[in-house]
Fold these 4 entries.
Entry 1:
Amino acid sequence: MAGGRAAGATMYVTLEPCCHVGKMPPCTRAILAAGIGRVVAAMSDPFPKVAGGGAAELQAASVEVELGLLADEARRRNAPYLKLVECGRPWIIGKWAMTLDGKIATRSGNSKWISSPQSRQIVHSLRGRMDAIVVGRETALRDDPLLTARPVGPRTSLRIVLDTRAALPSHSLLVRTARETPVLVAVGSEAANADRQRLRESGCEVLVCQGATHAARLDCLLEELGRRRLTNVLVEGGGRLLGSLLDAGQIDEVHVFIAPKLVGGGAAASPIGGKASQSCRLPSGWIRWRSSRSAATFTCMDELPRMFVYLRVESSCERLSENSPLVRADAARWERGRGRGLFPAQAGVVPVSSHRPPSP
Ligand SMILES: NC(=O)c1ccc[n+]([C@@H]2O[C@H](COP(=O)([O-])OP(=O)(O)OC[C@H]3O[C@@H](n4cnc5c(N)ncnc54)[C@H](OP(=O)(O)O)[C@@H]3O)[C@@H](O)[C@H]2O)c1
C-alpha cells in the first residue's frame, strides 16, 4: 500500500513472514518486491512450510532480519494460531452468562433472561470473528439458538451441534437455516441412518465421530476441526459440553457474563459440569478493574491464557459487586481511579479489550 515509499523501510511483524503459497501468495515475495530493507519479526513461524524458511529467504536476498523482539507478547497474541499449528487443535473459547450465584439456567432450563442487550451485542461481535460455534444437544433443543452473528462479522462460522444420536429436530432453527449458514452435526456411530439422512437432506453436514464415550468422540471432532484448519472456536454451552472440554484440558479462553440475579437451589445448572477434578487458581494480583460504575472487570488465570469477566451492574447490585471476592482485591484502586475520573461511568456491560497479564 505504501508503494514506492516502502523501499528501504523497516517492517515490524508479529510473525516471521511466510515463504509458501497458502490461501495467499508468499509474504516474502511481496516484501522483496516492495524493496523493504529490514524486517523485525517477533517470533519464528512454527508452521512446517515456513519454520525459518521465510527469514532465510529474505536474508539470502540481502534483507536484514531480526527475530525475537517482544517474543512473549507475540506468543500470547498469536496463541490461537500457535495452538493449531503445534497441537493440531483449534483454540477453544468458552462463553456463558450466569447469575451471581453461578447458575446458567433455572431448574426448568430457562436461561434467556440472564443475558442483556449489551452482553448479546458483545457475543454477536465475538461470533462474527469465529471459525466455528459449538453447542451441546441439550442447549440446541432447549434454547433453539440460531448461533449466527447479527450483524454479520468478518467471518461466517460453521455452526456445530454435538448430538450423539442425531436427534436434532428438523423444525429447529439450526436445521431450517442449514442451507444459508453451514451446520455440522457431530454424531456417534450409533445414530440411526434414517436420522443422518434426514439431517443431510435438510442441508446439514453429518460427521460421524468414532469412539465409545463423549470424551473420545469430542477428541475426534477437535482433531477434525484442526484438520480443517479452523483456528478460533466458540463454545456456547451448555455445562455438560463445557465440562467435557475442561476435563480434556481444551478450554483456552473464557468469556463470562455475570448478571445481577440469583437463582439458588442445587438443581439449577452451573456453567461447567464434568468431573470436577481440577481447579484454576485466581491470583489476586492479576485482578484488574476496567471501569467503576459498569464494574466490568477482567482477570487472567495462570492456567487459562485469557479470561474475560463482564459484570453487569444495575443499581440494585452495586453493593454486591463491590463486596464480591472477585473484585474486593482491587477495591482500593477502584476508589483511587474513581476520584481521578479514570474509569468512565457507564451503564450495562462493557466489552473488555484484550490485554497482557502483568508479570507475576
Ligand atoms: N446461560 C448460558 O450461558 C447458557 C448457555 C448454554 C446453555 N444454557 C442452558 O444450559 C442447559 C443445557 O446445558 P446441559 O449441560 O444440560 O447440556 P449441553 O451441554 O448443552 O448438552 C449436553 C448433551 O450434549 C451431548 N453431547 C455430545 N457430546 C458431548 C460431550 N463430549 N460432552 C457433553 N455432552 C455431549 C449429550 O447428549 P447425547 O449423548 O444425546 O449426544 C449431552 O447430554 C439449558 O437449560 C440451556 O438453556 C445456558
Entry 2:
Amino acid sequence: MALPMQLRYNYRIYPDPAERAALARVFGCARVVFNDGLRARQAAQAAGLPYIKDADLQKQVITAAKRTEKRAWLAEVSSVALIQSLNDLHSAYRHFFASATGRRKGPRIAPPRFKSKRDNRQSIRLTANGFSLRDNGRLYIAKIGDLAVRWSRPLPAAPSSVTITKDAAERYWASFVVQTQDRPLPELDTATGIDLGLSHFAVLADGTKISSPRFLRRAERKLKRLQKDLSRKRKGSNNRAKARIKVARAHAVVVDRRRNWHHEESTRIIRDNQAVYVEDLAVKALARTRLAKSVHDAGWSAFVAMLEYKARKNGRTFAKVSRFAPTSQVCSVCGVKDGPKPLRIREWMCAACGSVHDRDVNAARNILALGRRERLNACGGNVRPERVPAAPCETGTHLGDRKHS
Ligand SMILES: [Zn+2]
C-alpha cells in the first residue's frame, strides 16, 4: 500500500550579493503586502464593515496598489511571492476564526499580527509557477536569478512549492514541498520499547543505550560559552550586537546537529522494528518541573514526533503507553511491583525473582510489554484509531519543522 504524503526537503542556498539584495526587496514587499492586508481588514472591522473577501483584498493590496505612486515598487518583484504572502494572511485568519469558534482543537490561536522589518527570520513562499530547477542544479526564481544550492540529498520528485528563508544567523535556505508515494518497508516481527531516560538520551528494550554524540555536546558547550559572553556585553554596544550574531549562529549549529542526529536514530529504530512503543511523557507537564531544562535540551518531543511520522510513512506500528504506569518500579521479568526507585538508583535486584535490572533497560522492557498489551486490548474490540501527526513533514538535513508564515 502506498500512502501519498507531503514531505519537506531543506537545502542551504548561496545567493550572491545582487541576489541577496533582490531577496531583501522581495522579503520586504511580501511583508508590506501582508501588513497592508491586515491593516485593511482591521480598518474594515473597526468601521463595522464586513470581512474583506480574499479575492477583494488581493485586488486592493496587490493589483490596485501597484498602480499607486506609494506602492509602485511592488511591481518590481515576483507577484507569486506577494500572492502567497497574502494567502498566509488568509490562512492565519482562518485558523484564528476556527480556534475562536471552537472548530479547531488545541491551544487558542491569536489573531494575525503585523510583521516587523526587525524579525530575525524573513521568508517568501513560491508556488510552482514562481520557480524552476535548472539542469545545472541551480534554482531559478523569477526576478531574483539562478541561485546556487547545496544539494545535500536528491529531491525524490518535482516540488510543488518552495519557501526561501533568511534565518537569524543570516543564512539562506530553500525548503521544497514534495508529494511522494511512500512504500512501506518489508514487515518484520521485531518490536521495541523506548525509555527516554535522563542518564542516556534513550534506552531500548534490547539494552541499547543511545547517548548524544560528542559533536553535539561540543556544539552545545560552545553555545553556552557564547551565551555567557553575550550576557557580559554592555546593552546597546557594538560588541553586544556582534556577540548576538555569534550566539545565533552557534544556536543554529546546535539545532541542525541535534535534528540530524534525531533523524539518524529515529530512522534506524523504525527500520529495525515493526512496532515501537514509547512512554507518553506528556512533556508539557514535565516542562514545569525542575527536569524542564534537560527535557528541552534533549528535544524528546521532536524525536518522538519523528518516530511517529516515520512509523506511519513506513507502515510500522507506533504507540505511546500511559505515563501513569510505573515502568521503573515493576520487574520486567516477573511483573512484581518492587516499590519506588529514586532517580539516583541505576540498578536494582527484584526481591521476588532475583533478577538484576538496569533501571532504564527494565523500564524500556516494561514499555514494550505495556505497548503490546494495549495493542492486543485494542484489537480485541475497543479499537481506537492510531494517533498520527496532523501534518507529517520530513525535514531535511538542515532545517526543521519550521512553520513558514
Ligand atoms: Zn522479578
Entry 3:
Amino acid sequence: MFLCECGGVLLVKNIYAYPSGLTALEKLNYQRNCTVECVQCGKKKENQSFDSEE
Ligand SMILES: [Zn+2]
C-alpha cells in the first residue's frame, strides 16, 4: 500500500502497460510503474513502482 506524505492512502489510478514485445518471463521481471492519487489531498504521483514489495 502507498501512503502520501499527508498520511492519506494513495490509490493506484493507472498502471503503465508493458512495453510491446516482452516475453512472459521478461514481464515477470519487469518493474511496472503506476500513477497513484491520494484520497485525502488529491495529490498525484507519477512513476511509482507497482511491482516492488516495499
Ligand atoms: Zn495526501
Entry 4:
Amino acid sequence: MTDDDRRDAVTPQQRQEPDSGNAPAVPAAGPAPAGEPEPPEGQPVPDRFEDPGLPEHRPRSTDRDPRAARRAEFQVAALFSLSVTGTLLALAAYYTVQVEDDLGVAELLGRLRLSTLLLGIGLFLALFCVGAGVVHWARRLMPGEEWTEHRHVLRGSDTDRAEARRILADGAAESGLGRRPLIRNTLVGALALAPLPAIALLRDTGPLPEDSLSRTFWRAGLHLVRDPEGGRIRPDDLVVGSVVHVMPEGVDEAEHPLEERAKAAVLVIRLDPEDLDQESLGGAHEGIVAYSKICTHMGCPVGLYEQQTRHLLCPCHQSTFDVSRHCQVIFGPAKRPLPQLPLTVDPEGYLVAADGFREAVGPSFWERG
Ligand code: FES
C-alpha cells in the first residue's frame, strides 16, 4: 500500500491537520494495541484508531461521605505534623550531639553513630511525611476528575515576531557595536573575565586537600596490627587462605585518626606463593600479600574473600579483584587494581610495611595520574 492509498483510507473525520493545536492524540500506525483483536489475515492494518478517551470518573468515598473527607483531612494534618517533628528532631540532633576531634575514638564513633541516626530519622520524617501528606491530600481530597488540557501553539504571531526583529535591529544600530570595535572588544573581555573572582572565591569553601588524597599513614617499618582488636602479626599466625583486617600501628594517635583509618584499611591474605604472579610476589612475604581495602570504584570496603577462587568481591557494585594476579579487576565497574602494600618482617619476625602505598588508594579523582 502506498502513502497515497493510506491517506485515502482515512475518513475526513479522522484526518487532522498536525499543527491544528486542538487535535486529539492519534496513535501512529503499527501493531494493534494489547487486548485488541488482530485484523484478519490479508486485511490491511488500519492507519488510525478511535481515541478511547479518559475512563469514566468514579467518585471516591471522600466525595460521597463528609466523615471520610474529615478523616482524610486529619490524616493529612497528622503527616504534616510528623514532618514538623522530624525537622525539629534533625535540628536538635545537629545542635546537641557534638562531634569533635578531641574525643577518644570510641566516644567519637559513638557520637557519630548517634548523630547520624538521629539526623537520618529526622530528615526522613521531615521529607517523607511532607511528601506523603501532599500525595494523600491530592488523592483523597482534591478534585478527582480527570480532564485534558490541550497544548496551545507557542509560536508568537507574525506581527509580534516582526516587531521583535525590528526592536533588536534598532538596538544593535543604536548601540553602534558594529561601528565601534574598541567598545565591543573591551566589553567581550570584561564579560569573559567577570566570573573569575567567583572561581577564586571558591578557595574559601575549605582547605585544599593538597596531597592528602594521595598519601596514607603507611610508611616503611610500621607494624601491621589487627583491626579492631589490635596485636602485631607474625607470618606463622596466618595459614594459607586466612584473611586479616589490619591497620598501621599508631594510627589512632594521628592528628585526624578517623580520616587516616579510612584511607589506611588493608586486607592481609596468605596464599600459596606458587599461586601468585610475579608482580604480586614483588610485595609479598612468604605468600602473604596486603592490599588496600578501599574499592577503586567508589570507595566501599572490599571485604568478601572467596578462598577457592582467590577473588576479592566488593559488595557495593560487585567489582571483583583477582588476588593471585595483583588484584587486577576481573569483573564490575572498578577500573584499577587495588593498590598493594609491600610487606617484610622486622628483626623480631613481625610483619611490617616495607614501604607506603606506591599509588593513591580509593576511587579515582581529578589529580590522579
Ligand atoms: S564501590 Fe566497589 S564496586 Fe562500586
